[in-house]
Amino acid sequence: MTDFATPFAAALVTADTGKKFVQKPEKPDQAEFEKKLKAAQEDHDRVRQKLSEVKAKLDLAQAPGKNPLQNELKKRLFELRDKQSAKKNDRGKIEEEIKATDASLKAKIKELNAKKGKIPYKTPEELDNVIKNLEKSVERGDMKLVDERKAQFEISILQKQRKNFRTLDAEQKAIDEGKQKLEDLKAKKKDTDVQKLSDEYEETKEQLEAIQAEQDEA
């Protein structure tokens, strides 16, 4: 007959030795336990992922207007349209100002050139030299009375023309300022925000269309 090593039997066998023997419980397999735990965790994660996917599809399948992201994108789209419209109006005003400034500038340049054409001297310095030479001739006192009076009259005319140069300088300064204003307006017209708004509008529109497509498929 086969003997069974029960705790009671083991105690009897060792009774004559005077030593107490207690059989230890079998040690569990740690590796096997961790393997099963990992498998259970993976199953749990798969279920959670599946639930998340189902929830996402249900959210997308909501009636238009009830999807928070969709509403946010629509709101942003309207905001971008308003900004683009405002930029377009500003751009139109700038273009009108450019045309007006350019026309005024051309008229001033034409008028200035006409005035310069009436003066036989190109620069104030050239005119001053002519006046000085005439004054020296008069001061020498060797001119005939008729020639002296003629020289004095010419000096008077030239001095008036000298004043005209100061007026021409002021007009030239106004023209230079007009040219700078025109350049500033042209630079302002090239607003980089216009392109940025356009790019963002297209990107937002694509996102909105993608959501709508998923809703149609759901």
Automatic annotation (TrEMBL):
Any GO BP annotation: intracellular mRNA localization
Bias type Basic and acidic residues, positions: 186-208
One Gene Ontology MF term: mRNA binding
Region (Disordered): 21-46, 186-218
Annotated Gene Ontology cellular component terms: endoplasmic reticulum; nuclear outer membrane-endoplasmic reticulum membrane network; ribonucleoprotein complex
InterPro entries documented for this protein: Bfr1 (IPR039604)
Protein name (record): Uncharacterized protein
Originating organism: Choiromyces venosus 120613-1
